[in-house]
Amino acid sequence: MALDVPASASGAKPPANGADGGVHEGFGLARPVADASPMAAEAAGFTQREARGHKVTRVVSPTISVPQRLREIWLSRELLVYLVRTEIKVKYKNSVLGLVWSMIAPAMTLAIYFIVFQFIAKNGIPHFVIFLFSGLLLWNLFQVGVQTATGVVVNNSAIVKKVSFPREILALASIGSAGVFFFFQAIVMVIFLFAFHSAPAWGYLPLLPLALLAALVLASGLAILLSAVNVYLRDTQHLIEVVMTAWFWACPIVYSFQSQVALRLSKHGVTWLYFLNPMTPLVLSFQRVLYGKVTVTSTVAPHLVVAELPPHSLAWYAGLDVGVLAAGLVVVYLGLVVFGRLEGNFAEEL
Amino acid sequence: MSEVAVDVKDISKRFRLAQGKYNSLKERVIHGMRTPSEEFWALNKVSLQVREGETVGILGRNGSGKSTLLKCICGVLQPTSGEVVVRGKLAGLLELGAGFQQDLTGRENIYLNGSLLGMSKKEVDKVFDAIVDFSELEEFIDGQVKFYSSGMYVRLGFAVAVNVDPDILVIDEVLAVGDERFQRKCIDRVKSFQREGRTILLVTHSPDQVRSICDRAVVLSHGDVVIEALPGEAVRIFREGLLEEEGTLLVPLPDEEPEPRSSVTTPPGPDVEHPVRITYIAHTYPRFEEVAYMSTGDTLTIGVGYHASIATNDVVFSLELRDSDGNCFMRTATDILDLRFDLPVGPGLVNFFLDDIPLLDGSFTYSVGVLSPGGVLYDWRDSAGSFEVMCPGKATGFITMPVRASLLPPEPEAIAQMAPEELAHLESQG
Questions:
Q1: Could you report the per-residue pLDDT of B329-372, keeping only the tens digit for each?
Q2: Residue A59: its chain B contacts at CB < 8 A?
């Protein structure tokens, strides 16, 4: 058999080809490369080898800009989808009920709060299950996402230490898998709405994707930030659990903002303080759409008509959500900067 | 010259050697947020260019920075300064094995690894069978990776790396594991990659592998590139470095060598028992002035200076060559060569010419003797001198011999079953 020497020896060299300069972005040139010879392609058994003209150039350097990072994440979106699947698979590997667990936990929370606030410490909110679930739905996405993301780089050390890929993807995959659980829970929510004959506020429907997007962006930013920090400070993982519990109660999920908090806060003129919590507007938006009722007749005192939600326009809600979205983008930027700084030594620290 | 596939530009990598890592907040607070650390430069402004289709070996002792260099090239670690530009798809096997998620099965890990390397599911589908075939893990492919033995783990890792169609393959000492048969299979695959014009970077502890596979080799020591040279020479320097106790690798400069290389002086004077004494011994070969080693195929000349205190007839000079373990592998003498030397009183010189040295790499010594035809020893110099041989070619082993090989024409029945294009190919070859 004839020797299939790389065809490059026979020439076909691009005209201006500095060895040092121009290599960075010099890919994508449709020119024959070393092994584009039919012989080599045949030997390799791949047809796509002929398409070798497009070689991806990767730069490993301590200074990679945030736009560049975003670009790389975008290029790896297929990997993201795969990692989301993998994460869900790994999470419920070796468990009999598997994915069902992703429903059992929130169902339990829902049941507990429902029993406590409907029968023991009555809060008088009618259709309380719907009210509770509207907020809980979004909160679960946020909490589960951020919490699993915090440990994700450490937990995937086997991969991080061996393969190069935009590691931010790991954090995003945690948010993604939380998104999958969100989707399942959202289906249950729809069933609940039918079961309880509770109509959502159709006019406010645009708030749903907006608030969801804001929550995802904010969660992603925190996820990227915390997953990197956790590699160096493993306390982060435990700290975040505590913080999340407090954060949960700082959101109007099991209680109503309008009827139970608003008055007291406005008396001292500190309502704005409550709205520093970026999750508050998002939870309120979800409740505004899914719970749908601003003023209701209290189940505790039937002669009272109370406002459970801020009686504001769609624009008011949307404005707040956009504000959170903007803040979320800032957190994402910060997260990427911090991640970029810390990423360089992951393989050594893990 | 083809294009640069891996361009390592002046990279340095600093590690902080923590005296115990403080990973928890409490520990950090106790120690004033500061980890007691020593700075340690694993790489010092290392530059290296690997062209497309080249196979480059990296040699170095433990802690010389070779794994760090490879990790930086793979992008798993970021250098502290400098940058690495990698052109093409890179698949790496770092420190025994690819990145496998312990809880996933072999099958799922193949897909995971494929997508980490930027392949779509369809692309992985295409090579999946080849991977399983190569790894020989058919029965275990649906078992979780955490139950794999280390050999299975490495096999799967290697199978994935070579089957995902990389432009650049980076292998870190991985060829050293697995049974011998699998090792050979891996090396065969590496060689077929070479034929296909792919780029290979190899870290290994086996100088033989470097010599037989690589086009070029780099020796690292304490984060510095000591030498970038042909495999033979790099291996020699690496070996010399290993011998150095202190760790600083000194490349001996030819002009530092004393000339003649070894000398033994004996005051001349009449001596009945030892009528002929050896006064000095020296050797030379082409390019003796320039390099500290000779190449396979060169002529080695060993000169034996003597002083005859009494005129002596029929003096025999003998020569022995030994390898580094002291085994004599060649002995000859002037009487065997049908030479007769009648020496008058006074000094003189006898030269042995060893044409076309068939030795491959190594360090060798020689011993010289002067004796009577009856075997009475007049003088003897054990391990009087030594010389180094370096093989510029790819042959490994101890010596080289002229070898030919040919492909026999196939049997008539086989020709009858051949495909038309195969026949055409055969005919074109005559």
A1: 888 999 888 888 888 888 888 999 998 888 888 888 898 989 88
A2: 83-86
Greatest Cα pair distance in chain B: 91
Q: Do A334 and A246 belong to one domain?
A: yes
Interior angle at CA A111, CA A106 and CA A115, nearest 5: 150
Q: Which residues of A touch B408 (CB under 8 A)?
A: none
Q: Are residues A206 and A291 in the same domain?
A: yes
Cβ contact, residue pair B103, A90, below 8 Å? yes
Q: Which two tokens stand for residue B133?
A: 């075939």
Q: Is ipTM beyond 0.95?
A: no
Spatial neighbors of B340 by CB under 8 A, at least 6 apart, are B314, B334
Tell me the Cα Rg of chain B: 29
Which tokens is B188 given? 């065969």
Across the A:B interface, residue pairs with CB atoms under 8 Å apart total 185
End position of a domain, from candidates A89, A113, A141: A89
Look at chain A and report how many structural domains it folds into: 2
pTM of the predicted structure, to 2 decimals? 0.70
User: How far is Cα B307 from Cα B347, in angstroms, rounded to an integer?
Assistant: 4
Question: Residue A20 is part of which domain span?
Answer: 2-89
Q: Which of A23, A57, A58, A60 to mutate to test the interface with B (most CBs of B within 10 A)?
A: A60
CB-CB under 8 Å, B197 with A239: no
Do A158 and A190 sit in the same domain of this protein?
Answer: yes
Q: Are residues A81 and A99 in the same domain?
A: no
